[in-house]
Design goal:
single chain, about 550 residues, mainly alpha, Growth Hormone, Chain: A, protein transport, transport, transmembrane helix, POT family proton-dependent oligopeptide transporter, transmembrane
Length: about 550
């Protein structure tokens, strides 16, 4: 423990984050001791999911903040290769929810899928704490270390675990509310705050330990965070009011077979994450297959639900554009910050906490803004919000390039422009991500709920892979990042994205009509959830379907 008199900026930031984390946990304790079914006008189940997801994001984003630095500085990959591996990893994290969503829709139910995913995630994050040889300067020798296979296994477990957890926990949030409940967008924004509270704390604390004490310390803390999230989700089950149970009674043998499919997927991902070029082919083939299946399902529907599916496809198609730029934060922007930004002694990974901190600060403002504009009848439609999001993320890169060039190529980029790029990206994210989550659950047919959410994350995966390719390009032919080349690429993608945004805004009135929001009705699929027989244990634990009953 350092003497406080010798603390630098990074030490103080980590200490403040630790205090803030304890404060958030204290608030959670207050909510947990309340006996009422609601808190702050929302079901208590929302806050169970808030805290479970908070810890999951604590572990995921904490590890993400270190990953590209770990690849470049510990495993000695080139900057371009580190970016490509990072992009492949994050892409696979967003592909696997398609499988997890499908299995939950048809067999497991969302709750069991989330629990199983949490177990895989906790094991994967703890394996990340296993390091190989130290003090090796030759990249070829370093990457031949057998311990790198444990690293690939850890990534694979995290990827598959995210597949079972990510889409399904978001679906449970939607199930807590009726389709026409005006609190739905606000609920997803509150949930999104949980995501970003965890992301901010994890980025700071995991990143700080990893960069200042040792990589294994940071990754080990991420594993502990995931285990805590799993405990909260397990003990908070009654507050979910029976949501997320299997659609039909599930035989124990079939349930274990599905878990076996998950483990087999870990083996497949272990191979894929090491051969990034294969992932690009996989994305193309599976994307075409997913589009075909979605259209097949859409054309079986009546006119209004069919057009809602077309609106879903339009919104989902914009994901790669936004996330391809946004996800530079964990890749090329992190390496640029490490090499070319005047950081004032702050560890590089801590700068990735800026975005989630902004989310926590601005999410309540945006939630209140949407509700205020909705009451006035002037709230922008979901596709219009997507257009505004693209304008802001494109502009963020143009502002960053202008700021870096304004001081000259030989001068370190002022840190204020890192804060500005994250600010514009955050306000753009708040116009797209929580709005998109809400739109997916609202517009999708009930029998395709988790599949559509999985498709949403799948196209986010495409965006993450695109981000990796953009990051790889900043390394040039040698693989080593160049300041001039990086800024030239940032400028190009910024202008292209603003052009796409103008087209989206022009088409938004048409897509809004496809959504048919005015004729949305609450669904009543019947009391067909597994768990009916358990209703005597707790009248909110199983067998009740609050998504179709007044809360």
């Amino acid at each position: 423990m350092k003497d406080m008199g010798s603390w630098n900026e990074g030490d103080w930031i980590a200490a403040i984050a630790a205090i803030a984390l304890f404060a958030v946990l204290a608030i959670g304790g207050i909510i947990a001791t309340r006996k009422s079914d609601e808190f702050a006008g929302h079901p208590r189940g929302l806050f169970v999911l808030f805290y479970a997801e908070m810890w999951e994001r604590f572990s995921y984003y904490g590890m993400r903040a270190l990953l590209v630095l770990y690849l470049a500085k510990f495993w000695l990959f080139t900057d371009g290769k580190a970016n490509l591996i990072y992009g492949a990893y994050t892409a696979l994290v967003y592909i696997t929810p398609v499988l997890g969503g499908y299995l939950a829709d048809r067999y497991l139910g969302q709750r069991k899928a989330v629990f199983y995913g949490g177990v895989l995630l906790a094991i994967g994050h703890l394996f990340m704490a296993v390091e190989g040889m130290h003090g090796v300067a030759d990249p070829a020798v370093k990457q031949a270390d057998p311990a790198i296979n444990v690293f690939w296994l850890a990534l694979s477990l995290i990827i598959v675990g995210s597949g079972f957890l990510k889409a399904n926990i978001s679906v449970i949030v939607g199930q807590l509310y009726r389709m026409t409940d005006p609190r739905r967008d606000a609920a997803y924004t509150i949930f999104y705050m949980g995501v970003n509270v965890g992301a901010a704390m994890g980025t700071i604390l995991v990143g700080y330990l990893g960069e200042t004490i040792g990589w294994s310390w940071g990754f080990g803390l991420a594993g502990i965070g995931m285990a805590l999230g799993l405990v909260i989700f397990t003990f908070g089950r009654p507050a979910l009011r029976g949501n997320g149970e299997p659609p039909v009674p599930l035989a124990r043998s079939r349930e274990w077979m599905l878990y076996g499919i998950g483990l087999a997927s870990v083996v497949v991902i272990w191979l894929l994450v090491q051969y990034q070029d294969v992932i690009q082919t996989l994305l193309i083939i599976s994307g075409v297959a997913m589009l075909g299946y979605t259209l097949y399902e859409a054309f079986k529907l009546p006119k209004e639900p069919r057009e809602r599916m077309f609106a879903i496809l339009f919104l989902i198609a914009l994901n790669p554009v936004f996330w391809g730029l946004f996800e530079q934060a964990g890749g090329s922007l992190s390496l640029y910050t490490d090499k070319y930004v005047d950081r004032g002694g702050v560890p590089t990974s801590l700068f990735q906490s800026i975005n989630p901190i902004y989310i926590v600060l601005f999410a309540p403002i945006f939630a209140a803004l949407w509700q205020y504009l909705g009451r006035k009848g002037i709230e922008p439609s979901a596709p219009a919000k997507f257009g505004y999001a693209l304008i802001q993320v494109g502009l963020s890169f143009l502002v960053f390039v202008w700021g870096a060039n304004s001081v000259g190529p030989a001068v370190m980029t002022p840190v204020i422009f890192v804060f500005l790029i994250y600010l514009l990206q955050t306000t753009g994210e708040l116009c797209l991500s929580p709005v998109g989550l809400s739109a997916m659950t609202r517009l999708s047919p009930v029998h395709l709920g988790s599949f559509i959410m999985g498709a949403w994350f799948y196209m986010t995966a495409v965006g993450n892979f695109v981000a990796g390719k953009i990051g790889e390009a900043t390394g040039g032919e040698s693989g080593a990042m160049s300041k001039d080349l990086t800024l030239a690429i940032y400028s190009k993608i910024g202008w292209i994205t603003i052009g796409v945004a103008v087209v989206v805004l022009a088409l938004s009135p048409i897509v809004k009509r496809w959504m048919h929001v005015d004729t949305l009705q609450d669904r009543d699929p019947g009391d067909d959830l597994a768990g009916q027989a358990q209703a005597g244990i707790d009248n909110q634990e199983a067998g009740i379907h609050p998504a179709v009953r007044p809360n």
